[in-house]
Amino acid sequence: MQALMSFESAPPYAAPLRFFLTAPLFAVLAGLLIAFEGADIFVSRWMPAALAVTHLLTLGFMLQMMFGALIQILPVVAGANLPRPLLVATIVHAGLSIGALLLAAGLYFGEPTLLSGAAGLLALTVIVFLAAVLRALIGVPSTSPTIRGLKLAMFALAVVVSLGVLMAQALANGWALPLPVLTDLHAGWGLGGWAGVLLAAIAYVVVPMFQLTPGYPARPSWWYPVAMLVLLLLWSGAVIAGSPGIIRFSQALAALAGLAFAGLTLRLQHKRRRARADVTYRYWQLGLVGSVFALFMLLTAAIWPAAGELQGWTVVFGILLIPGGFLAFIIGMLYKIVPFLTWLHLQNLGQSKVPAPNMNKILPTINMERQMKAYTVAVVLLLAAALQPEWLSRPAGLAFAIACGWLWLNLLGAMRRYAEHKADIEAKLAVILAAR
Amino acid sequence: MTHPKTPHVLDARYMESPEPFVKTMEMLDLLKEGEKMLLLLFREPHPLYRALKQNGHAYETELLPDGTFEILISR
Asked: Looking at the domain assignment, is residue B59 inside a domain?
C-alpha cells in the first residue's frame, strides 16, 4: 500500500477526495430517477430517462472516480508527476460535475441548449485533464504493461468523448447521423477502450497488491490493451465503411478479449495468499461475475443478432456491465484507497511523534461490509426489475439510491474522522514541541 | 534464497506494503561496497526508484514472463 501512495509524491488530501465524495451522489441521483420514472425506464435503452441514468453512472460516477484516482496514483503506478494537482483537480472536478448534470438533464428533457452546453463543457474538461496527464506521461517510457495501458486508455478517452460530443451536437442541432450505430461505437470506446483498458492497467498493479495474488503474466498484459484498441479501430472502420459483418466480428473478438481478462483475474484471485475474503475481494468477485455475464451477452448478440433484439436484452447487459461490473470494481478499490490515504496523511501530520489511528477506526470494516450487501441486493433487484419492471422498478431504484447513499456516508465518515484526528494530532504535536 | 545475478535476494512478491520498501532499505544497508541485491515484485516500485535515485543507487529492471519484476540494485 505504501508503494501505491508514497507521501512525497502524493497530491493534497483534498485533490482526490472531492471526486470520491461527489461520485456517489450521482449514483444516488440515478437510483432516484429510476424510482421516479418507474417501469418506463426499462422499456428500452433509448428512453430519455435511461440515457440520463446511463450518463449519471458513467460520467457522474465512473469518470469522476477514475479522474480522482488517477490524480492520486499516476505518480506511483507510472512514476508520472501531474503538474499542479490541486488546480487540475479543482477545474476538472467542477467541469465534470456540472457537465454530467447538464448532459443528463439535456438527455432527459431533450433540450438542445443543455445538450450543446454539456458537450462543450465536458469536451473542455477532458482536454484539461488529458493535457495534464499527457504532460506527466510524456517522456515516461512504457517499461511496464501498466504504463502502456494507461497511455492507450487516454487515447480511448479522447475518442469516446469526441464521439459523445459529436452525438450530443447532432441531437441538439438535428444533424442526420446514424445514431444507433454511433451509440454502440461510443459505448464500445467508453466501456471497452477507456474503462476496460484503464481497469486492466490498474488491475495489473492493485490485484496482486490488494489481494496478495500472483502477478498477471507479462505477455497477455502487454497485449490486452493493444488488442482492445485494434479491435475498436476495426469496429470504427467498419462503421465508416458500413459493414455490419465486420462490426459484429470486432464486437465478438472484443468480448472474447474481455472474457479472457476476467477469467485470468478470477484464476489469480483463486490463487491468492490472503486467507480472509475482505470487502475489496468480494466487490471484485461481484464485478467479475457481472462482467462475465455481460460479455457473454455481447458475444451471443454478435454471433446471433436476433438475441440483441429481445425485450430487455440491452438493458440487462447494461446493468450487468455498469452497476454489476465497473461500479463494483471501483467501490472495491475505493475501500482500500480511502482508509489508507486518510491514514497516510494523518501519519505524515504526526511527524513520527504522534501516531495515526488504526485504519479500521477510519473506515470500520463492518460499515463497508453492510454497504456491500446492500449494494449487491440493489444490483440483483435492478436485474429483476428489467424482467419485471411493473413491480420492481421503483423498489430497485430506491434500493440502488440507498446503497450508493450508504457508500457516500461511509466515505464522509472517513473524512470526518480525518478532520477530528487531524485536530487531535495537531494539538498533541503542539504540546510535544512546546515542551522541548 | 540466491540467484545467478546475486546471492542477496529479497522476494517481496507476497509481502504487504510497506514491507518491501522497508526491507529493501534494510538489505541495502547490509551490503558491502560493490555488492548488488535483487528485489522481486509483481509491480514496478516507482516510489522506491525515487528513493534509490536520491541515495545514489543504480538499478536495472527486468520483467519476467510470469509477471515478476526483477530489480537489480547496486550498493
From this structure: yes
d(CA A244, CA A168): 24
B22, B40, B43, B68: best mutation site toward chain A, by most A Cβ within 10 Å?
B43
C-alpha cell at position A367: 460499515
Contact list, B63 vs chain A (CB under 8 Å):
143-144, 218
Per-residue pLDDT for A8 more than 70? Answer: no
**How many inter-chain contacts (A to B, CB under 8 Å) are there?**
78
Number of domains, chain B:
1
Condensed to tens digits (0 to 9), the pLDDT of residues A32-51 reads 999 999 999 998 889 999 99
pLDDT of residue A372: 98
CB within 8 Å: A8 and B21: no
What ipTM did this prediction achieve?
0.94
Domain harbouring B26, CATH code: 3.30.110.40
Provide the terminal-to-terminal Cα distance of chain B, rounded to the nearest Å.
19
Measured between CB atoms, does B53 come within 8 Å of chain A? no
pLDDT score recorded for residue A1: 46
Q: Residue B68: give the domain boundaries.
A: 8-74
Count CB atoms within 10 A of the CB of residue A76: 22
Nearest-Cα residue of chain B relative to residue A204: B43
Which helix (H) or strand (E) is A407 found in, with range? helix A389-434
Instruction: Give residue-wise pLDDT tens across range A66-83.
Output: 999 999 999 889 999 888
Amino acid (one-letter) located at A372:
M
Q: Compute the nearest-CA separation of A146 from chain B (Å).
A: 9
What is the predicted pLDDT for the residue at A2?
Answer: 47
Residue B3 covered by a domain? no
Q: Which domains does chain A have, with CATH numbers?
A: 2-434 (1.20.210.10)
